[in-house]
What we know:
The chain has 98 residues and is α+β, with helices and mostly antiparallel strands. It has one helix spanning 70-94, and strands at residues 7-15, 19-28, 33-46, 49-61.
Amino acid sequence: MDLPCLAARMRSRFQPPGSVDFHHTIHVRQLRATIDVRIHYSLEADDGTTTVTRWLVLDIAMPVFFRPLRPLITRSFDKENVRTMAALKAYAEANPGR
């Protein structure tokens, strides 16, 4: 599900040597919802491999009569997580030592 947005704002912070934090606020006009997204990635070298730790916190504020649609929203974030982790893995494997 693509979320139609009225407005979105994203902030990010890189903390060397290997963590990135994102804070993204999405306003979905059609659902009268605000989705506050916090994502953290930590990358750690370990015997020639890279271990990625990720956490995601979603805070979804919406009217009670739209709440049955929450699984559709979380499913879209799950799908994006799979895509992002695959892209990150491919990048890390193609760029060892970076």
